[in-house]
Amino acid sequence: MDKLLIQGGTPLSGEVAISGAKNAALPILCACLLTGEPLQLKNVPHLNDISTMLRLIGQMGVEVTMDGNDGLILDSHGLNNPLAPYDMVKTMRASILVLGPLLARCGEARVSLPGGCAIGARPVDQHIRGLQAMGAEIHVEQGYVHATARRLKGARIVTDMVTVTGTENLMMAAVLADGETIIENAAREPEVVDLANCLIAMGARISGAGSECISIHGVERLHGATHSIMPDRIETGTYLCAAAVSAGSVRLTHTSAAYLDAVLAKLREAGCAVSAEHDVISLKAPQRLKAVSVRTEPYPAFPTDMQAQFMAINCVAEGSALIRETIFENRFMHAVELIRLGADIRIDANAALVTGVPRLDGATVMATDLRASASLVIAGLVAQGETLIERIYHLDRGYERIEEKLSKLGAIVRRVR
Ligand code: EPZ
Fold first, then answer.
1. pLDDT tens-digit map of 140-162
2. Smaller CB count within 10 Å for the chain: N or C?
3. What is the DSSP string of 226-291?
4. Model confidence pLDDT, tens digit, residues 260-304
5. Is the distance from the beta carbon of residue 45 to the nearest atom of ligand 1 less than 6 Å?
6. Could you tell which of 138, 159, 163, 296 is best to mutate to test the pocket of ligand 1, judged by most ligand atoms within 8 Å of the CB?
7. Cβ(403) to ligand 1 under 6 A?
8. How far apart are CA 119 and CA 3, in angstroms?
């Protein structure tokens, strides 16, 4: 398995381009299932999760054509196998996002239950309940969700909690349903809005995306469209943290500050000078950061996908910070790895108290999930000496060419086969 070897101590500087958003591209790839006409996508990130999703819809009968460097043309007129098998779903939970579109387009779907993952149980009960409210017959047997529906009917759905892919699945199911669907307590994440914009370009009638109440008026069919994936706000935040912790100064291009208010506010509170204009964000870090406490909540509050990165920068900041994780029940696994590098972190249930230490010392550490891996990279950039990160296949799921982009910013990092 690949490893990442980082020599710490170099302030990051220079300019790097941000890729398309993984968590916008994944549901939008599934949207192609809703029409028999070609869907042309641009700014698609080159990530393992994207390749997995393309394999998954490809085995259903979708024709995938590369269109230049970061473009794709998806044609599902030959869709003939509404099945998402366990061996594919177990490697990527987001596979559940095919359930709504398959039901809407084919009237049936067999999708393996995703099972748990490192950061929590992550059930899909809200996805199932919402589809049942729209008239789907759903039963779960032998680890598969079997769903059928002659034609889904519009319904008013109130989810028990804010769920990003739950909102996305139900929105995609509703665009071809008979009548109006209202999703209350909807996720407001920008990736939900990007999906809605793509569906609207395909002829869907959606209003309220980005608010907690989304209304979808079903139509008979959708048509092809062209859509460019929004920039990845979590990749952006991750590189900003890498620059912040290393007393660096960077410019990130092809991105947007519009979706990062909570994160940029915390970086400024930590002592960074952050400015943004058009599709560029610039950050200049102080010699040493001040500790900043964070509490993860649904968008527009501080994102859970940036929690691990902020735990890392707090490890060497001045003072103590309290980190509360309210979204997932087990998203502190990076803490024990950071402690191996010399961090002072005390965990109590969903709260972590991080007390800044003067320095971290390089060691061998193990990645456990995508954003935990990012926090180890950030810590390795500032630790004295060499840090070797194992199991970096987690990183490759969500960060395009990470060692290339970090090297471009002056980091001393290489992939060890
Ligand atoms: C999406 O996951 C993202 N993934 C996650 O990013 C992100 O951390 C998460 O939203 C929260 O922002 C994609 O968009 C592909 P949820 P999702 O449904 O949709 C519970 C990354 O690093 N819940 O919003 O799976 C659930 O257990 C990944 O890129 C139910 O109980 O998250 C969790 O505690 C990690 N039943 C909470 O709700 C359900 O039916 C929020 O989960 C659905 C969710």
1. 999 999 999 999 999 999 999 99
2. C
3. EEEPPB-HHHHHHHHHHHHHTT-EEEEES--STT-HHHHHHHHHTT-EEEEETTEEEEE--SSPBP
4. 999 999 999 999 999 999 999 999 999 999 999 999 999 999 999
5. no
6. 163
7. no
8. 21
